[in-house]
Every structure is written in structure tokens, then in C-alpha cells.
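Pasting as-is:
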Amino acid sequence: MSEVRLKAGSLVGRVTVPPSKSDVHRAIICAALSKGESRISPVALSQDISATIDCIKALGANVTIDGDSVVVNSENIFSPEKVLLDCRESGSTVRFFIPVAAAGGVNATFVGHGRLPERPLDIFEKLLPGHGVRCITDGGLPFEIMGKLEPGRFELTGSVSSQFITGLLFALPLLSDDSVIHLTSPLQSKGYIDMTIDVMKRFGVNIDVRNGDYYIKGGQSYKPCDYKTEGDWSQAAFFLVGGAISGDATVEGVMRDSYQGDKEIVQLLRRFGAEITEGDDYVTCRKAPLHGIDIDAAQIPDLVPILAVCASFASGVTRIYNAQRVRLKESDRLLAISEGLSRCGVDIRQTDDGLLIEGREALSGGKAEGFNDHRIVMSMAIASLRSTGEIVITDRESISKSYPDFFEELISMCNYLK
């Protein structure tokens, strides 16, 4: 595993972040479920997006890469009777495709790599057999399904990953009769579900939301379209926090009216005390004195590592709570980010569901384990901007999962990389 060595500097300039990974996943799947040809652009071919493309190809779709566009012809979707779907390390891919493949009546075996085989799939293991699908698993991957998904009432807790709900939303309109998804507790990561429904609508499929339940008419048809993706607020957060702690950074290509829940980073940085300027498709964040705040992370789990970095330079104590689900990501992110920041001099403590962080003026330097987790590596890279000593981070290559050009963008804005 390669290392990266970083030193302090100012992050100054403009950056256009990659297209939203969440948006691209959803558009590619909707295109695959449409009968005809769709063009999705722009697309950055991270490992996670490549995993989703490989899965629709395995299910019978034809895919062509044309510059930064993905062209999908789905005339032969669900033509194989049995497939192996390699989801690499992408939680979104496996949780989206299990119900989708089941709706197509495809017998499929799902495999993955890294920490993905350990990530929970028990929701589907318990839910799908009551709707015509046999599941064979020892608790994670490999996960085998047989049979065709049947419509009906699907009950699950709203505290699970929204990816399970999104997978069902994609699949249920394809069935012969109506279905309903009933959540037995308040929904977390609601923004991701709103995004799913919006993308589906642009491909001609409608979901009716009433009193927190999702009503899905059966027999709907996805329609091909040319789909323009939007910039990724999750990735924008790294550069915006970089500006807040050490610089003047402008992120372009992010939409103010986005359904992405992680656009909340703008309001959180305002609460920390950063100086923010917003336009319809850009945000600028400038360094200012920061102070600790309380953060409910239930709707923004992917922001937790970079928020912990911001809190490390905010006077007083920051409390992050309702973040227990991030222990089940590519790494236990509460453990990973607390260990990395602690090794570099931050007073940080884990709680059952979050973090307590005492801010300081600068880090002292040190070596941080990247845990083969792209968000941990990128977060620690931003933390190095205010460090009196060099910070060494392992697993540099893990960023290819979501943002292969991250370090090149940092170099263009801050020439501090050795």
C-alpha cells in the first residue's frame, strides 16, 4: 500500500468536483431499465461507478464510453438467466442490484471485495423470501438470489441504509401489481431517497409518497433519456473544509437546489464560523475563526470524517452524534478518523454513536492509517493543511474508489505535496 506525505499549506483557487457518484449510479441503473438508448454525462469512471456499469452489462445491457459520457442500450436487459455480479467495494451497487435483478427474474450471485463482504445485507435476507425470492448467504457476500420478485407490502426500519430502500424503489415499478414500502421508524439519509425519486421521474417512473410511506404502481416503464449529472457535494466538502481551515477555496459545478443531502456542508460550515459565498452552481469558503458546534449526522453520514477534521481546528468542543452507521462503511469510520487525528495530536474521543473533539490551533504531524477508505485518506489529507509537522497517510490508492484525481486537484490548488 502506497503512502502520501503531506505538509502544511493554504488551499487557494477553484476546483470543479467530479459528477455526483450517487447521481451517476442512479442514472445508469434507470438507463439500464429503460428500453432503448440513454446518454449520461458527464461521468467520472471511479471504481464504484465502473462496478455499476459492469453489473448492467452482466445483466444484458450494452454500454459504450464516449468521452465523459456513458451510453446505455438496454434492449436486452435481463436476458441472462443466471449471472455473477461483482460489486467490487461498492455498497450502493450491491444493495441497488439485489432487488433489481430479482425483479428481472435473474438468478444472480453477488460478490465483492475489501470490506464489502462484511457489510450487512440482512434486510434483504429477511424481506425478500416473503416476496418470492430465495436468498442464500452466510450473512454477507457472496449473496445468491433465485426466483422472481413479487409485489406487495415491504416493511423495514427507516434507520437502515437508504440504499436498501433505493434498491426496492428501482425494482418495484417493474412488477405486475402495486407495492408499498412502509417504514417502521423515521427515515435517515432522506436526501438520498429524494434523489432516487427525482432521477426515476426523469426516466418516466413515478413514486407516490404519503405519510412517510412509498406507494409504487406496478407495470410502469422506464423511458430512455439524455441525462445531465451534477457535481458531487460529498467531494466538494473536502475542499470547502480546506478553505475553512486554511485558505480561500471555490468549488464549481455543485447545484444549490440539489437533492444531495451532503449539500448541508454549507450550512454546517456557516455554523462553525467559516466565511461562505454561494451562487447557483458554486460555493466559496474562506478561512475564519471557527468554534465548536453540535452536529446531528443522521442525514449526512458520509460527511462525518471531514467534519471531524473541521472540528479539530474549531475552538471548544464539537459533538457529532447519530453517526453509528458510519461504523459499517468501508471502514469503521468513527474509529478510523479518531485514530488518525489522535495520532496527529487532536484530543478526540469516540462515543457509542459519534465523536467528541476538542479543537486546537494546529496538528503536530504523525502517521495516519488510511484503512483502505477513500474518505479517511482524503480527510486526513485536508487535515495536513494545518500541521506543524509532516503527516504520512497510508493507502493513498484507495481514493480511486470515488475520486481518482483528488491529489492532482490538491496539487493544482496547493503545492505542498512531496
